[in-house]
Amino acid sequence: MNRYKKWLIASLLISAASVAIVTGFTFDAETIEALKRVKPEYIIAAALLHFFSYFVWGFRTRALCRALGHEVNLARVIEIVISSAFAAGITPSSAGGEPLRVHMLHQNKIPLGRATAIVFGERLLDAFFIFASLPFALHIYGDITSNYEFDAAFLTANALVFLILLCFVYSLWKPEKVKSAIHRVLSKASPFFGKRTDTAISHILEQVDQEIDHFHESILLFFSDGKKGLFYGIAYTFVFWTVEFSLLVLILMGLSETPSIPTAFAAQVLMAVIMIVPATPGASGVAEFGAASLFSVFVSPSILGITVLAWRALTYYMNLLVGGFVSLKVLKDMDVIKKLIGDSTESHRVPENPQVPHTELPEAP
Quick one: average pLDDT of 355-362? Predict the structure, then answer.
C-alpha cells in the first residue's frame, strides 16, 4: 500500500507541475476573456460522457466473458473496469490495470487462463483500433504540419508495435513454442536459486503450461463459438473510443472554440500511441506535454493550457476520483465477505475431541 501511495502522490505531483508549466506559458489576457465565456454545460456533458464510457467498457468486458461461456453481473463488471482504471492511473506505464482485471475476473469464477484471454482480448481490440486509425491521423497531421520527421517518427513507432503484435499472434498460433521458451528460461535461471527450488519451478511450469493451454483455447474460442461475443467486443471498442475522443471536442466547444472533429480525433489517436511508452505513473508529465504539443496545432495559444487541464481532468483525474471511490468499496466488500466466511467457518467448526465442549476450543489461527 505504501508503494501505491507513493505512485499516486508522484503521479499527481508530476501531472500538476506539468499542467502548471503549460498553463503558465500560455496564460495571457485573452485567457481571462476565454474563461469568462466558458459554457459549463459542454464541460458537464463531457464529464457525463466519460462516465458513460465506463458502462461501454463494462458492456464490452461482459460480452467477451459471455463469448467464453461465463456470466458476470454487469454492475460487478463495471466495478472491475473502474477499479482497473484507478490502478492503471497510479502505476508506471499503466501496468497495474490489466493484472487487477485478470485477478478480479478470476475471483468471479472465471479460470485464470480465460480471464487473461478476456483482458488480452480487450487490449488487442484497443490496439487494432488505434493502429488502424494511425494512418488516418498521420495523414491529417501531415497535411497540417508538412513535417516529414514527425511522420517518420510515428511510422517507426507504428512498425515496432505492429511487429510486437505479429510476435503475439505467432505465440497464439504456436503455443508449444512459447512453452518451450519459458521452460528454457526457467531451467537456466533455476541454478541461481538453489536446488530446493527445483520442485517449486516444476510446479510453476505445470501451472504455466496449463494456463497457456487455457489461454490458447479461449482465444480460439473467440474465433469459433465466441464469434458473436467478439463482434460485440469490436462494436463496443469502436463506441468506447468514439466517446473518449469526443471529450476534447466538447471541451473546446465549452471554451467557445469551433474545433475540427477529424483533427481533434487524429490528435488523440497520436496521444494514445505516445502514452503507451511512458514509464511514469499514469503517463504523468508525458501526457500533459504531449497533449500541449499536439493540441497546439488546432487550439488557440491563449486557451491551450486550460484545454490540456480540462482534458486531463476528465481522462485522468476523474479516473482516480471515481476509481478510488469504487476501489475502496470493492475492498470493503471483500473484507465483509471474508468476515462472513470466517464467522461461518467458526460456527460450523466441529471439535476434534467429542469430550471437549465446543466453547472451550481454542480460536482458529
Answer: 40
- Positive or negative, the CA dihedral 25, 26, 27, 30 is positive
Q: Give me the helices (H) in the chain, please.
A: 2-26, 29-36, 40-67, 74-90, 97-107, 112-145, 148-173, 175-189, 197-222, 227-254, 261-274, 286-295, 301-312, 318-347
Tens of pLDDT, residue by residue over 272-294, are 888 876 667 777 778 888 889 89
Residue 193 has pLDDT above 90, yes or no: no
Contact between residue 234 and residue 125 where contact means Cβ atoms under 8 Å apart: yes
Query: What is the CB neighbour count within 10 angstroms for residue 153?
Result: 11
Nearest residue to 130 (alpha-carbon basis) of 294, 274, 227? 274
Q: What is the pLDDT of residue 218?
A: 67
Closest CA to 123 of 133, 111, 131, 134: 131
C-alpha cell read off for 164? 510486437
- DSSP letter string, 27-62: --HHHHHHHHT--HHHHHHHHHHHHHHHHHHHHHHH
Quote the CA–CA distance of 365 and 361 in Å, as a whole number. Answer: 12
Chain centroid, CA 75 distance in Å: 18
- pLDDT more than 90, % of the chain: 24
DSSP per residue, 103-152: HHHHHTT--HHHHHHHHHHHHHHHHHHHHHHHHHHHHHHHHHH--HHHHH
The position carrying cell 486509425 is: 133
CA distances from 179 to 58, 71, 214, 365 (A): 32, 30, 13, 39
| Amino acid, res. 56 | V
What confidence tens digit (pLDDT) does each residue in 133-163 have?
887 887 787 777 666 666 676 677 667 667 7
Q: What is the pLDDT of residues 44-93, one digit of tens each?
A: 999 999 999 999 999 999 999 988 888 899 999 999 999 888 888 887 76
